[in-house]
Design brief:
Elements lengths: L2 E5 L9 E4 L9 E10 L2 H8 L9 E2 L3 E9 L11 E5 L8 E5 L4 E2 L6 H21 L7 E4 L5 H12 L3 E6 L2 H8 L5 E4 L5 H8 L5 E6 L6 H6 L1 E9 L22 E3 L3 H4 L3 H16 L7 E6 L3 H9 L6 E5 L1
Parallel strand pairs: 9-10, 9-12, 10-11, 12-13, 13-14, 15-16
Antiparallel strand pairs: 1-2, 1-4, 3-5, 3-7, 3-16, 5-6, 6-8
Helix pairs in contact: 2-3, 2-8
Bound molecules: NADP nicotinamide-adenine-dinucleotide phosphate (NAP).
The site of NADP nicotinamide-adenine-dinucleotide phosphate has 30 residues, from α1, α2, α3 and α9.
Length: about 325
Amino acid sequence: MPNAIRIHETGGPEVLRYEQVETGEPGPGQVRIRQTACGLNFIDVYMRTGLYPVPELPATLGMEAAGVIEVVGDGVKDLVAGDRVAYAMAIGGYAETRLIDANKLIKLPDAIDDQTAAAMMLKGLTAHYLLFRTYPVKAGDTILVHAAAGGVGLLLCQWAKHLGASVLGSVGSREKAELAMAHGCDHPIFYREENISQRVRELTDGEGVAAVYDSVGQATFEASLDSLRPFGVLATFGNSSGKVKSFDPNILAPKGSLYVTRPTLATHTATRELLVEGAERLIDVVSKGIVKININQTYALAETAQAHRALEARKTTGSTVLIP
Ligand SMILES: NC(=O)c1ccc[n+]([C@@H]2O[C@H](COP(=O)([O-])OP(=O)(O)OC[C@H]3O[C@@H](n4cnc5c(N)ncnc54)[C@H](OP(=O)(O)O)[C@@H]3O)[C@@H](O)[C@H]2O)c1
């Protein structure tokens, strides 16, 4: 029987159990995949701790993976056994094999290997919607990316730079600053020791940035608002330091008629059209080497708890891949 990482209750990394789970046969519109690489994302931590509810327990966690189609269910068009595919935002990813709706899958070109696909789908589709839909970045814009050396962060820095933006990036260490700067970040901000908004004002001649892409959440929310220029956009899209506390929208007026949005990749991949648009752009920039995927940590699937510990302890950079 195939193995998977499941939780039977929410809690710390110790609730992640490596166990045998029956996969079964695909129903209409589904396929069965043999997975070769699974992505690790902060959303997996939120689901493990209970910050985001899972549909039912026990649950196989994991939202992203790549692999090969083994069996195709009735009514599936355009996919056959043997196709290499990848997906994001479909719970059940931490597994050797799984069933999945075919309309969630993106076929992989030869230029993108399975580990790269598992490292880029969820984070890359996120970077795509943030830069193209949430606040469409234009050449000449200055933006601020928090956790710039992280999984989503490194993709945002590279892609925004390619679009012609000037990129400020907050980082937790000197090593992370080096990495971010090698991937499109023009100016690192050491947010553990520097005042973020003061530093942003210094770097932008007092003006502030057009947009802040903030995945850190609670710890950076106010500084992010204070870093914006008039009419600037705060995309608060994650909670790695905890959930943003409720706030009074009146504070946005004196700070410059600001916009705050709390987007999710779930909405941005809810239709086939939205998913394909993002995936095509992502595959294009990765295939051409414009956006490089940094797999800086790999773990055996059985060692997923260790990978969670490292991610939560801010010990990772770029993407982490779990190998079934
Ligand atoms: N809304 C969406 O659609 C969406 C989609 C994908 C991801 N996300 C969010 O984007 C964020 C990034 O995800 P990722 O998987 O790429 O993770 P990641 O950025 O690689 O890892 C999190 C990083 O956040 C920073 N951080 C700051 N305060 C932290 C704290 N108290 N605890 C832990 N980390 C802290 C750390 O970098 P430093 O050491 O440099 O501070 C850490 O390495 C997550 O918040 C995730 O939920 C949202």
